[in-house]
Design goal:
By secondary structure, this protein is of the alpha+beta class. The protein has twelve helices and 23 strands. Helices cover 32% and strands 21% of the residues.
Length: 652
Amino acid sequence: MTAELVRGQNHPLPHTRLEIRVAAGTPLLACATLGDSDGVTRGTEWLAHPGAPALPGIEVSRQAAADLRFHVDLGAVPEQAGLVRILLALPESTGGPDRFGVTAAPFAAVTSPEGTEVASFTLTGLAAESAVVALELYRRQGAWKVRAVGQGYAGGLAELLSDQGLAGARAVAEGIQETVARHLAGAVQAPLSGAPDSARSRPDAVPSSAAPAPGESVQAQQPASPAPRAAVPDAVPQPAAAQQDGAVNYTHPGRRTSTPPTPPPVAPPAEPGQPRRPVAGDATGWSMEERLYNQVWGMFEDLARSVAAYRSAMDFAESRMDQELDRVLADPRNRVGGAADAARAAARARHDDLAARAREVLDRDLDQLVAESEVVEPALPAAYARWDNPVWHAHRVPAEIPMALRLGDVHLPEHPALRIPMLVRLPLERGLWVDSGRAGSEAALLMDEAQLQGLAMDTAVSVAGRLLAVYPPGEFMVHVIDPAGSAAASLAPLTVTGVLAEPPAAGAAGVSAVLARLTRRVDLLQMAVRGGAAGSLPPDLDAAEHLLIVHDFPHGFDDRAVTQLRYLADEGPTVGVHLLVVADREQTSEYGPVLDPLWRSLLRITPLADDHLADPWVGHAWTYEPPAVPRGSRVLVQALERVVAARRARRR
């Protein structure tokens, strides 16, 4: 049973491996400190913060967010440290609240790694404080306990760290705040056009995802308050900007600071003792879009954990059978004869029984998830839906940016037909890389190089078309670099409908011109954001986000162009300039390690099914399926034609 703690109360911890989940109504930065027997933090090597997120046994979030996770392994905490403090602070210079008294009370939950809640604490009673010690984990006679603290500091993080005896606390706190400020600046879009903030605000109570690079995890987001499902990893909330009378407001429009409403009541079970009938949108959220978003990621986590439990049970069954057979064979007298055969048969029977029970549990979970998928998939809005979903036929260009975009599907080998939508938050925090190489995919190895490149470009156009279709008219522009002009067939939906900002750039001169314009744009917007001079932006600088599709990289790129592309990949997303690169990494090997940071900064997707993604909970290898347009369908062209029509109507 969960212990609901009040300030000063403690509770024993049954596990040494823990997660501490924090939900708040505003972005918070996470820190953790170790303390010796006197409670003193001996130095910065005993402090974890977003710029240095790991200590022995402790890991904190690298990002400021309204939903945070601390990963704790108390068995790895140094012997000389008998105290772990969990610290929360409000980021400075972000336009957000400057004291806890004007925000929703943060909620902290201590859970096992499997998500079972051990203790929880709501940090009420805070007023002028901007930093707080939320919880303490402390060791007594070899056992660990958690104590609800809730001690706030009006002097902020500097006062808090100073109170713990950390030398140079003010300079350390300033460095932490500067690190967080740099990251939050990366979530600021280019200014949006025209409409007031209230009309621009997207559903916002869920933080954005950090998309995975090759070998990284598929990152999800958790709701702003504890949901019926287990929570998912933290990430950075997405501020937006709106332009009015030449001034730009870079704070998030309409960021809610109260707890979201509870989900609607779920349908009762069909019969007593039977699983409940799934309902679309039964997760926590402010809107149906947000509830569906949280429900999809809940399904993703449920499938990951169910399969993890099944695989663990199968490993145990195999290990147990091996141990039993080893014991039989250890005595030479038992290796032959009826007794040996009976022992082997008994060991295999026990293995088969364990395997059958594990599969029965998995099948039950899979049946429930399949039933849920069957009601959720048809209810998804266009931004979350597959191209073959009928919702696209009735789709109209929206007046506000959706919460997320579907980049394809993921599935596991235990049930390949159960496809989970792969959703990434908007606006994009990282660029995309469509891998046109043969590495990692058997299907790619059997395919002609030109055919594979064509599929990769088709995937890029599909993604770009989705982005154009789900953004308000005029708020998303696409540029194309096609140095050799070899992507004309794939680019036809973009060129025929006229949605491109300009014709595809060809040749070295075209590459140079496009990169120069976008690099200048990033420079100007970054100077405006960092210098607080948004009103001084040139009048010809439009307010849209921009996407650059680069085909057949690095063909047509010289050293200067490569440097500019890396700059756009690193700095562009902070001000609404994004990359979508179609490339075979092996063809860029002549640059050596120079381009390694570029590949790491981009989310890798593939034109064919490929198992290169991993979930953040148990690390399964998930097979990714790209968002293919059905053969012969005009759904993409029709969606882009509506984009063009909406732009014309907006200009009237």
